[in-house]
Structures are given as structure tokens and as C-alpha cells.
Amino acid sequence: MGARKRISAEKRKEARKSMYFASLRNIPTSPRKMRLVADMIRGMEVDKALGVLKFSTKEASNRLEKLLRSAIASWEQKNERKAESGELFISRIFVDEGATLKRMRPAPQGRGYRIRKRSNHVTLFVDSKNNNGDQN
After folding, report:
1. How many domains does the chain have?
2. Could you give the CA distance from residue 123 to residue 68 in angstroms, rounded to a whole number?
């Protein structure tokens, strides 16, 4: 590895130490369905977002609830203390498209219809409110 590449990799590694996030990869639901649930909780406090996800009827909300709990655990591990009520909020959440499995379905007159089984990747960042105030 070249010197410039190593230096930029080390900078990225240092910046990542101060971020608290969790990510899910290759979730077998379409990105559009996952974005509907992600939009519901974007920017919310963590406790309120957990409540919204708990009582949502969408299948994607179960996966996002588990992901949010993982991000909270990441924050608690890096800060070596428990998160207090109202301290954390979801700073960023985004859903990217994953690999698409292409399948064929029999159609009339010897044709085949293509079925696309989509998947997605979700990344969720949490941050503390007092930490965000220091940067502004």
C-alpha cells in the first residue's frame, strides 16, 4: 500500500472511532419498503423511535428495531456507560440497494417473465444530543 493511501486509511479509521453506528447487509426486502420505515424514524430520539418500531405493522420495522438496539449498544460500549433516557437520537439512517436475484417465472406461449428479488443494506448512526451541541 502506498503512503498516501495508508495515511487516508488511518484518517478514516480515526474518524470512525468517534462514530456510533450499526449496519445490516443483504436484507431480503426491497429498498423501497425499508425506506418507508426508515423515513418514519429519521431524526427521532432513540426511545421514541423504538416505540414507533415496536408498534409498526411493517415487517421491516422488526429488523430496524434490532439494528437500532445494536447501534445503542455500540454507543454504550464505546462510551463505557449506559445511555440515559432522551440522550441519544438517530443522526443518520440510509438504505442502499443490495444484490438482486434474478429469477424466471413461466409465462404463456413459452415465454418467461423475469422476477427481481431485491435486497438492501441499511446503515444507522446514533449520536448524543450534548455531543451534537458542541460541534455547532
Report:
1. 1
2. 10
Q: Does 120 map to a domain?
A: yes
Its pTM stands at: 0.85
Domain of 60, in residue numbers: 21-135
* Grid coordinates belonging to 44: 427521532
96, 115, 94, 88: which is closest to 104 by C-alpha? 115
State the Cα angle at 69 between 65 and 74, rounded to 5°: 145
Find the distance separating the first CA and the last CA of the chain, reported in whole Å.
37
pLDDT tens for 65-96 read 999 999 999 999 999 899 888 899 999 999 99
Is 44 in contact with 90 (CB distance < 8 Å)? yes
